[in-house]
Amino acid sequence: MIRAQVTDRDALAARLPSELAMYLRAHDWTIRSREGSAVQWVKTVDDEEFEALQPQESTIRDYAARVRDLLNVVAISEDRSELEVLTDISNVSMDVHTVRTFPPDNAPGMIGLDDGVQAYESVRNLVIAAAYTVSVAQPRAVQPARKSAEVLKFLRDVRIGPSAEGSFVLSVHTPVPPRLSPLQPTLFETEQAGGFEPAEPFERRVSLRLYDAVRAAHNAANDALIDPSGLGVFTESVPDGISANLCEALVGLGGEAGHPFELSLRLAPSRPIRARPLPPIHFRRDHIPVLSSAAQELRERIPEEGVVVAGNVVRLHREGAGSGEISIAGSVEGDDRLRRVWMNLTDEDYSTATLAHREMSIVSVRGDLVRRGTRLYLTNPAAFRVIATQD
After folding, report:
1. Burial class (CB in 10 A: 0-12, 13-18, 19+), 245
2. pLDDT digits over 359-382, tens only?
3. How far apart are CA 371 and CA 360, in angstroms?
4. Phi, psi at residue 261, to the nearest 5°?
């Protein structure tokens, strides 16, 4: 079999000595000696010993050539192509989530423009949903639109990788710090059955939570149609990361036609964890409507608490004096999409809303957002006020 070789000097020179060392260590190579500017690594495979020289300084003149030699030895020892090994070295400090979609009537690696844009947005929303549940003490079935500074900072470090051959493939790359010491559980860690290792950084916890939440949603979609509780199988898994936001993101990966897709996770070799299975999670066409219904019902039954709505009063209605109903066309804090939100106000706030409507002023109000059918309602409205007037 002909395997791809790497001759691009820039690609070879781009790999850092630390990446080479982390990859070799993670794949059971051991150091035999240090010779000047190189480290000699060895590994035995099927009674055959392989030797690789890893340069320690990227400033040496023949650095790319030395990386090429190392790559050749490692590829032979692993019976893989140099390109595959180089890709894994590049991602040695990255947790990589791969989403493989199977849109019909498309050539391999292709997808419709609208579905492609939606797929990228849905992957982003998946990451946000997972990061939110890790960042809070109590996960919510309906997550707020506004995210914490910790989540937003994390998002800035996450990368989208190049597509792969075959079906349309997206990859999300999350940098994680390397583990410098071997895995030796403390007494405290041993007691954390089924939980995260206390030493795991935020980035790794998000990676695992994303995978576990998607797995929980997959299981819930399988069980929802046969379980008498229906939506209950989703609400019971909210502590595992299931939310309306996560379900909507998964639906988005199916595109307009609801095509199948698959999600997998490969943890960064530079930060190993205790063995746990991470099989690919495959969603069928019939999972999509179940997830869509779950997202809608969660939003209808469980309000999004403490939401701030800002915009223009576009409708007023009441019978005589007293409280009345209004609707605001505007946005929810943390989400720039134009929404129309309905609410009932006290007599005093209704009078303020009437004046704001007449003067085309912008108002704001805080409350709990819930969906009822096709409408959004703000319950428990408070702090209704005018924040800007029309010039």
Report:
1. buried
2. 999 999 999 999 888 899 999 999
3. 26
4. -155, 165
**Domain 304-388 belongs to what architecture?**
Beta Barrel (2.40)
DSSP H stretches of helix in the chain: 9-13, 17-26, 63-78, 82-90, 113-135, 149-157, 187-190, 202-224, 232-235, 244-253, 287-301, 347-359
> Strand 304-317 vs strand 281-283: parallel, antiparallel, or unpaired?
unpaired
**Pair 23, 93: CB distance under 8 Å:** no
Distance (Å, whole) CA 258 – CA 102: 10
Tell me how crowded residue 223 is: count the other CB atoms within 10 A of its CB.
Answer: 17
Which residue carries 């990386």 as its tokens?
Answer: 67
Give the start-to-end residue ranges of the domains of the chain. 9-90, 94-178+199-301, 304-388
| Per-residue exposure over 50-80, b if at least 16 CB sit within 10 Å of its own CB, e if not | eebebbeebeeeebbebbbbbbebbbebeee
Both structure tokens of 111: 């997808």
Per-chain mean pLDDT for the chain = 90
**How far, CA to CA in Å, does 61 sit from each of 64, 65, 71, 365?**
8, 9, 18, 64
Closest CA to 235 of 305, 300, 306, 285: 300
Residue 191 has pLDDT above 50, yes or no: no
At residue 149, φ and ψ (nearest 5 deg) are -60, -35
d(CA 81, CA 72): 9
Q: Which residue has the tokens 């695992």?
A: 208
* CA dihedral sign, ordered 319, 321, 323, 327: positive
**What does pTM read for this prediction?**
0.81
CA nearest neighbour of 42 among 53, 57, 34: 53
